[in-house]
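Please go through the sequence and fold tokens given here and tell me how the chain folds. Record follows.
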Amino acid sequence: MIKIIIADDHAVVRKGLKQIFDETLDLVVTGEASNGFELIDQIKVKKYDVVILDISMPGKDGLDTLKEIKTICPDLPVLIFTIYPEEQYALRVLKAGAAGYVNKETEADVLIEAIRKVSQGRKYISAFLAELLASNLEAGGDKALHDTLSDREFQVMCLIASGKTATDIANELSLSINTISTYRIRILEKMSMKNNSEITHYALKNRLVD
């Protein structure tokens, strides 16, 4: 049996996934976490075969949690399961050590296939993500502007582009408003932009937000 722990702040998502896996013979959910802190605590004391991890969670987001998991349990496969499109986070989470990236709109059988694959120590790469990786390699040294941003700066940029205020972003990432303002200044400087409108235009043009 493949023992799975699900980390998602929405109970309905965790329940839905459990119902899907209950219909398989080789997948079983043996742990749940509603945030990154709970997840880290659980994997320190119990063995799992695969982690299903959302990116957007209160307190400790998925990216930070992923990096910590790779530090304490480097061989534990982490499958990112999120609402965000692959263009937005997939390359970053793969570089950070994720074993695969699955969008929440994906069919259940694709998710099950991904879990089975990563549990064997392999990577799960969708056809679209394979194209993204190939395009990234072909680009060579020509980095996109947003690739110059740190993971946290990139998160803040996407949240700004989605129309959230500094207060909203501070609450979501559990940071101070001053810290968010500092990130915004860095983003504008690195991307040679003047305001949030330019950030939003860039993010939409590059399909980083819907």
Notes: Residues 17 and 23 are 10 Å apart (CA to CA). DSSP finds ten helices and five strands in the chain.
